[in-house]
Amino acid sequence: MELEQLKAAWAQQAQRIDQLEVVALQAWRAPRQRDIRHRLRWFSGQQMAWLLVWIVITVMAAGFWIEHRHMPQLLLTGLAFHVYGIAAIWVSITRALLATRVDAADAPLLRQMTRLAQLRRFTAITELALGLPWFCLWLLAAQWFSVHWLGVDLYAMAPRWFLGTLGFGVVAMTGSVVFARWVMKRLPETHGWQRLLDSLSGRSLARAQQQLRELQQGSA
C-alpha cells in the first residue's frame, strides 16, 4: 500500500509540474503574441493611411491631366502620377490584406510564419518598385507643383534641361537596378537577402518574424 501511495503521489506531482509548465509557457507566449499582433495592426494602419493619401493624389492627378490634356508634357505628367497612384493604392491594399492574414487568430504558428515571410518579400519588392521611379518622378512632381501653384511650365521654360534631367533619371534608375543585382549576386545568398528584407520591409515586420521564430522554438 505504501508503494501504491508513493506512486500515486509521484503521479500527482508530475501532473502538477506539467500544469505549471503549461501555465508558464502560456505566460511566456502571451506578451509575444500581443506584441506581434500590435506590430501587424500598426503596419496595416500605416498602409490604410497611405491608401488615403494616394487616393487623394490619384484624384488630383486625374484632374490635372484632364485639365491640361491639350498640352502633351502636362498630360504625361498627370498620367504618370495617375498610374503611379493606382499602383500605390493596390500595393497598400494588398499589404494590409496580407498582414490581416498573418494576424488571423486561428492560424497555426507555422502558417503565420509562412504568411509573414510572404508579406516581407512582397513589401521589399514593392518598396523597390515604388521607390525607383522617383529618380524621374521628382522632376514631374516639381513640374506639377510649379504649374498648379506658380503657373510656371518648367518644360516650356527649359525643354533641353527638362528632357536631359529626365533622361538622367532613367539612366540612374536603370543603373541602380543593375548595381543592386550585381551586389546581391556577390553577397552570400542568405546574408544579402536578409539585409534587403530588413531594410525594405521595415524593422516592425522583421521583429514580428523574429518573435514568431522564438514562439516556434519555445513550443518545440
Describe the overall structure.
With about 220 residues, the chain is mainly α. It has one domain. The chain is built from eight helices and no strands. The protein has helices spanning about 1-65, 70-100, 110-130, 135-150, 155, 160-185, 190-200, 205-220. Helix 1 (about 1-65) runs antiparallel to helix 2, helix 1 (about 1-65) runs antiparallel to helix 8 and helix 2 (about 70-100) runs antiparallel to helix 3. The longest helix has about 70 residues, at about 1-65. The two termini are about 40 Å apart. Residues about 20-25 have low confidence and may be disordered.
Give the secondary structure arrangement, pairings included.
Blueprint: H1 2-67, H2 72-102, H3 109-131, H4 134-150, H5 154-157, H6 159-186, H7 189-201, H8 203-219
* Number of E strands: 0
Average pLDDT confidence is 79
Largest sheet: none
H/I helix tally: 8
Inertia-based shape: elongated
Helix residue percentage: over 70%
Instruction: Give the N-to-C terminal Cα separation.
Output: 39 Å
SSE string, helices as H and strands as E: HHHHHHHH
**Helix/strand-derived class?**
mainly alpha
- The tally of domains stands at 1
DSSP strand content? under 5%
Task: Give the C-alpha Rg.
Answer: 27 Å
Low-confidence stretches: 20-25
